[in-house]
Amino acid sequence: MQDGLRIAVRSNHNSERGFTLLEVTIAFTLMMIVGLAATALFLYANNYNSGAGERALSIAVAKQQLEQVRNVSLTDALLTIPSGSTSTTATSTVSNGGKSYTVTRTVELLAACTGCDAAKKITITVTPQDKTPIWGASPVTVVTLRSAITPGPYMK
Predict the structure, then answer these.
(1) In terms of DSSP bridges, do strands 119-128 and 140-147 run parallel, antiparallel, or are they unpaired?
(2) pLDDT at residue 12 greater than cutoff 60
């Protein structure tokens, strides 16, 4: 009876075979391919996220500059255009979130009001000085129109 038990145990051990070296190699190769694809996707997402953050900071700087322009009167020195000219441009450097931005503000007299300060077009362009990532370093431009409160020809 003991011999029969030993034979049964031996046959169970012989039927339990492990993975072959070829199966393990194929499994590791597939896992490596999936892992590399996931890593590439992670790096792309990380780059995209940092560019989006850069763009959001640029938009925040543009909004701050626009609010400064909105809070001054139309005859303020910030919006003054030299006589004999139809536009003026000023450039400055602003920091936000530990990054530097070049801000270009252009003030133009509208053609409908030549010779007066009643209507102006103000363009603010914010360009990040750090050029990484390249698509996140594209300039942000906001445009606003300002006019003085003056009665039109219908009020005469």
Answers:
(1) antiparallel
(2) no
- CA 64 to CA 57: how far, in whole Å? 11
- Whole-angstrom Cα distance, residue 156 to residue 151? 8
Beta-ladder partners of 75: none
What is the C-alpha to C-alpha distance for residues 85 and 94, in angstroms, rounded to an integer? 27
63-94 pLDDT tens trace: 999 999 888 888 888 888 888 888 889 999 99
**N-terminal to C-terminal alpha carbon distance within the chain:** 124
How far is 125 from 141, CA to CA, in rounded Å? 4
Does the pTM exceed 0.70? no
- What percent helix, strand, coil does the chain show, rounded to 5? 50, 25, 25
